[in-house]
Write a structure and sequence with these properties.
Elements lengths: L6 H5 L5 E15 L3 E7 L7 E6 L5 H7 L5 E10 L7 E12 L14 H6 L8 H23 L3 E2 L5 E2 L11 E2 L26 E3 L4 H11 L1 E9 L12 E10 L3 H22 L1 H10 L4 H10 L3 E4 H10 L16 H11 L4 E7 L19 E9 L3 E8 L4 H10 L8 H8 L5 E7 H9 L20
Parallel strand pairs: 3-5, 6-10, 12-13
Antiparallel strand pairs: 1-2, 1-4, 2-3, 4-5, 7-9, 8-9, 10-11, 11-16, 13-14, 14-15, 15-16
The chain binds one RNA strand of 75 nucleotides through strand 1, strand 2, helix 3, strand 11 and strand 15.
RNA sequence: UGCCCAGUAGCUCAGCGGUAGAGCAGUUGACUGUUAAUCAAUUGGUCGUAGGUUCGAUCCCUACCUGGGCAGCCA
């Protein structure tokens, strides 16, 4: 029995072969006088394999009638040097079968489609060059994430998807409930009585595994999570999705400085890995998606990321001599236009902004000593990247029990709701830090694809959960 | 959630007060070691939905729906 060869491997064959078996989908067919060219793609690589089907094969006319774009075929034949210029090898079919036809209603054509249209046929778009390439890179990057952390002795921890904790500051949550919405139980005050719900309390889909991740870092030293995350924000932008994947390393005995370095090494590792293992796909993106891609990725690899404190960033923005939509003053959030200016115009490279005003950040971030002007900051950091903006957000966590409690009061949080989290500071507390990287945003950066909906297999955005 | 843009053939778009057009795809034929093949012919549309203005609306107005962009929220 002849085993199947992937198109990718056939292209890399060291020598001609008397018999190989290819199976895949037809991208296009071109008929010549006594034979047809059938271009077969199986998703293993960008480039299809050119198959020559001679009219001497039995049922040639009928086979070609059924060999339309989108049909699936099984081809057994000889791998021979191509007579044409476009490829090294081609396959001369000896046995040729159409497994599944694709009639005229098949929506994918040889010529380009708009990304908006392809989103409507998300079940078929991986059959296009662009999405095949995107999802090959996505798969490789997921692998590279594990490789990076495993090599550094970070343990992979599976934090819960359904959670009763609210990683405050991360965003709105999707509720998880089995209560009948038409007949909700009420407590004495008329509020929904979650005590009668499935878990006996109010639960939601996770917005971050960070708090749970910290508990494992405070036992196993260095951990990471990598999984889906859910935010019920009504965001309509090209870089927000309601369901996305996040990588969240957390390490004990790590400070903000080390956290920033880890983030930089991590991002560079992913880019280097994509360069090495997805070269053909990246070349495709460089040609059809973003002409600057290759130069930008090289540039990012070559230089250290810039670092600048929030306070310095404010000074830079105020000295920029630009008219801002929103004025910049110490204590304000950096707006999109400010972040863009820093990474795209001022530093012209990825930049890590750190030590943000305490008032802007969640309760768990470690508080710095006040500066000369008495201003309070926390050890937070955001990695800003040209073209996308924030790709990583992280911080050193507050390990001091009393300061953490004070922070919780400051944020109007009930300590009882976070008792297990507070315990980490009560028993053997250690300095620790971590960050979250938006996997899709990283993919946008690596591929040059401008919309987050196009780097997720099936995008969930407000009002849209087809498929 | 706010502001903005767009919905016309299967796809990408043009038309814009007088009743609908192109390219591609499809179909038919020709030609050819082609590779987004080429050439010729041809099929295909209650112009997003509902109201309104008008003698007359795809075109102007309003609302809604859908898609997209930007901002906020963040990753």
């Amino acid at each position: 029995m002849l085993t199947r060869t992937l198109v990718k491997d056939a292209h890399n064959a060291p020598a001609a072969a008397d018999a190989i078996l290819l199976q895949g989908w037809i991208r296009t067919r071109r008929d010549a006088k006594t034979f047809s060219f059938v271009e077969l793609n199986d998703g293993s690589c960008l480039k299809g394999m050119q198959v020559i089907v001679n009219d001497s094969l039995p049922d040639y006319a009928e086979l070609m009638r059924r060999s339309t774009t989108g049909a699936s075929v099984s081809v057994r034949g000889k791998l021979v040097p191509s007579q044409g210029a476009g490829q090294k090898w081609e396959v001369v079919a000896e046995k040729y079968a159409v497994l599944g036809e694709a009639d005229a209603s098949y929506p994918l054509q040889k010529k380009g489609h708009s990304l908006e249209f392809l989103r409507e046929i998300a079940h078929l778009r991986p059959r296009t060059n662009l999405f095949g390439a995107v999802f090959r890179v996505r798969s490789r990057m997921a692998y590279a994430i594990h490789q990076f952390f495993q090599e550094r002795d970070f343990l992979y921890v599976h934090t819960p998807i359904i959670t009763a904790s609210d990683c405050e500051g991360a965003g709105e949550m999707f509720g998880v409930s089995t209560l009948d919405p038409l007949n909700l139980p009420r407590d004495a005050e008329g509020n929904i009585d979650y005590a009668q719900d499935f878990f006996g309390k109010k639960t939601s889909l996770t917005v971050s595994g960070q708090l749970e991740g910290e508990t494992f870092a405070c036992a196993l030293s260095s951990i990471y999570t990598f999984g889906p995350t859910f935010r019920a924000e009504n965001s309509h932008t090209s870089r927000h999705a309601s369901e996305f994947w996040m990588v969240e390393p957390e390490a004990a005995f790590l400070d903000l400085e080390g956290d920033m370095q880890l983030a930089e090494d991590f991002v560079k590792h992913l880019i280097r890995d994509a360069r090495e293992h997805c070269a053909a796909d990246l070349e495709f993106f460089g040609k059809f998606v973003d002409k600057e891609l290759s130069a930008r990725l090289d540039f990012v690899l070559e230089r250290p990321f810039q670092r600048c404190s929030y306070t310095e960033a404010i000074d830079i923005l105020q000295a920029a001599g630009k008219k801002w939509e929103k004025n910049v003053a110490w204590g304000d959030n950096l707006q999109s236009e400010h972040e863009r200016y820093l990474s795209e115009e001022h530093f012209k490279c990825p930049v890590t902004v750190y030590n943000y005003p305490r008032s802007l950040k969640p309760f768990y971030m470690k508080v710095n000593a006040p500066d000369a002007a008495g201003r309070e900051t926390v050890r937070a950091m955001d990695l800003l990247v040209p073209g996308i903006g924030e790709i990583i957000g992280g911080s050193q966590r507050e390990e001091n029990l009393e300061v953490l409690r004070e922070n919780m009061r400051h944020h109007n949080l009930n300590e009882q709701d976070y008792s297990w989290y507070v315990d980490l500071r009560r028993y053997g507390s250690v300095p620790h830090a971590g960050f979250g990287l938006g996997f899709e945003r990283m993919l946008m950066f690596v591929t040059g694809v401008a919309n987050i909906r196009d780097v997720i297999p099936f995008a969930r955005t407000p009002g849209n959960a087809a498929f």
